[in-house]
Design a protein that fits this description.
Strand content: 5-15%
Distance between the termini: 14 Å
Number of strands: 5
Shape: globular
Length: about 180
């Protein structure tokens, strides 16, 4: 069986982490979102919102971490690995804020490709802001549209996960990959 690296994407507050946690609880190999780690590390160094204050540095750190996740996933003993956000997410967020980025970002998206992309739609009823999520719901919807555009630009077919219970969303994902 060929290695499948499956990415779960969506704007902030769509339930990605909850689904990843649910997949882990069911024994699946999953890699967490790394932006919170990057943000918390920057806070320790006195930078309150690295993404807002130094977006290119933040994005470079994310890109580096996501490329590392990609290679780690390739070397996993498991045939299927789920990742919370992929490399093109970095570009989608740069598009969202209107910043430019080096050509190496584009090359990273072309050189590291995923098997399937599941996208979670904006869902106001479950949206919550917190210390690491500063966007409001309107901004989350805009980020969602940038994610769709960016991933489609790299040739991905996006599989939308219906709004439902965590269990049903996980069931939908697992059924889709087993077909």
């Amino acid at each position: 069986m060929q290695k499948e690296i499956i990415v779960i994407i969506g704007g902030p507050g769509t339930g990605k982490t909850t689904i990843i946690d649910g997949l882990v609880a069911k024994g699946h190999c999953c890699y967490p979102e790394i932006s919170r780690e990057v943000t918390m590390e920057a806070k320790k160094q006195g930078i309150e919102q690295l993404f807002l204050e130094k977006p290119l540095l933040f994005s470079e750190l994310l890109l580096e971490g996501r490329i590392k996740q990609f290679y780690n996933a390739q070397n996993e003993a498991h045939n299927v690995v789920f990742i919370d956000r992929g490399i093109p997410d970095v570009l989608a967020y740069m598009h969202y804020i209107g910043d430019s980025y080096p050509a190496s970002f584009d090359m990273a998206c072309k050189e590291h490709t995923y098997s399937k992309i599941f996208i979670l739609p904006p869902w106001e009823e479950i949206y919550i802001s917190d210390d690491a999520r500063y966007e409001n719901f309107e901004q989350a919807k805009l980020i969602h549209s940038h994610l769709i555009e960016t991933y489609k630009n790299y040739g991905y077919d996006l599989i939308e996960v219906p709004k439902d219970t965590m269990e049903n969303r996980i069931h939908f994902i697992l059924n889709t990959i087993s077909n």
